[in-house]
Each structure stands twice: as C-alpha cells, then as structure tokens.
Amino acid sequence: MSQNTTDKRAYLNATPMQREVVRRLLCDVLGCLRAQYLSYQTSHWQVKGGSFYGNHLLFQRLYGSVEKQVDSLAEKIAGYLGSEALSLGHQMKHISDYTYRWSSIDCNHKRGLQSEADLQQALKRAYDGIKQADAMTLGLDDWIMATANAHEENEYLLQQALAPIPGDARQASGAPSAEGDFYKAPNQRVVLEFAKSKALSNDVAVVEQASKEDHLDTSEAVAVAEAKDAPPLPTEIAKEPGAAAVSTLNQYVIKSEDPVAEKAVPMNESRMAFWHKELN
Known about the structure:
Blueprint: H1 16-46, H2 52-81, H3 88-102, H4 108-132, H5 138-162, H6 186-197, H7 204-213, H8 220-229, H9 234-237, H10 243-246, H11 259-262, H12 265-279
C-alpha cells in the first residue's frame, strides 16, 4: 500500500503475478457486467405485447442496478491496479465476446437469464482464482459475494416473468383440494398473485410517475387504485411476523404449533377483522 500526499491512491500490495491474476479476472467480470447493461437496456427498449409496461419497468430496474455495479467495480480495479488497467481496448474485447454470445437468443428474458448464468460463472472464476493467488482483500470478497447475491434475485425475477400462471389443482377423485393454492417456493406464489392483479406496479409513486411520463392505456386514478390493491413484494412480506419460519406464507397463518410462525397470527386476525368490517 502506498500513498502520495498530493494524490491519494490505494494500490494492491501484491506481486506482479498476483496483480495480473486480479486484473485479468476482474476485467472479465467488468466486461460481462457492461455487456449485460447493454443487453438489459436493449431489452428495455424492445419489449412489447400485453405485459409491455411490466417488462419495460423490469428491464429498467435490471440495467439500473447493473450500472451501479459497473461503476463500483471499475473504481475498485482503478484503486487496486491503477486506471491503466481499465484499457478500453481490452474492455471492448470482453464486451464483444459476451454480447455476441447472447445475441442469438431472441427472447429478452431468456437472453437475460443466459447473461446471469455467465456472470455467476465469471464471479466464481474471479473469486476462486484471486483466492488461489492469495490476493483477495476483505472488501473485494464482500463485493463479489454481494454482487452474486444481487444477481440471484435478478435471475429469480426473470424466471418469474417467464413462468406460466397455473390453474387451480383438483384431486383425481373430483373432491376439492387446496393443493393448487400452494407452491414449493412461497415467493413464487406472491409473484404470481401480483401478475394476476394486472397492476402496473404495487408502488403508487412509480405508477404516478409512469402516468406523467408515458401514455398509459388507463387513467392515472385507476392505475393508482390498482397499485394500492396489488399484493406487496415478496421482500416486503418477508419482513413481517412469522416469515422466518414460513417465508411469504406468513400472510396466511391463522394457527400454528411453530412459535415463530405463530407470531403472524395477530397480524392476520387483524387483517381478517378489517376485511370483515369492509364486507359488512
């Protein structure tokens, strides 16, 4: 680590071999992220059809999050190795390789999923390689882990955008069954319920902004009302009582032998009382 009193810059305290490993692997991740940004931004422009606005917002959210990660990683590389490590020529090679690999996939969502798979591989190569070279810092370790985790959420959102909405399941005997009301992954249930609501968003501020900036097929008042009625995000539900035991199914618990899940009961009793009052 060296510092200059007039121009403070922190450089990686490592051998030339270690520095080259770090440069090569991190520049590959950076190139993948920059290619992914371009891919998601292009999808944001190209989506169409009945789910246009939802997908339009989805890809805007995706490329917006990637843009921040690009800037964060570029600053880390410059801090570790100096700005010369960010050569545009080398970056263009990585960007071109990744975008060419994905360009043959016509579906915007499937192209996004392939980019997420490639990024996870690049992150793992970087993590394993830098660790093996004994050049990993605590900050870089944290950044790689946090980025991999964030992109698992991106993959989940893309998968749900592609998932069909199943009908109610019934037993072969013809007797009613509640099997169709549950899913192996509770978060998927919430996403499907949001899709069924047909709301543009469950965030009123987002809908109000969209009404001002875009030509919507419905009035602002109707869009806002739909946003208020739409189910909350899985991440919001998971913060409520009982979620530590049953994830987003906590909103359905009315009795449980699990003390953690039981914490959701007062919340749901209060909701049911409110709904009963509204119906009457």
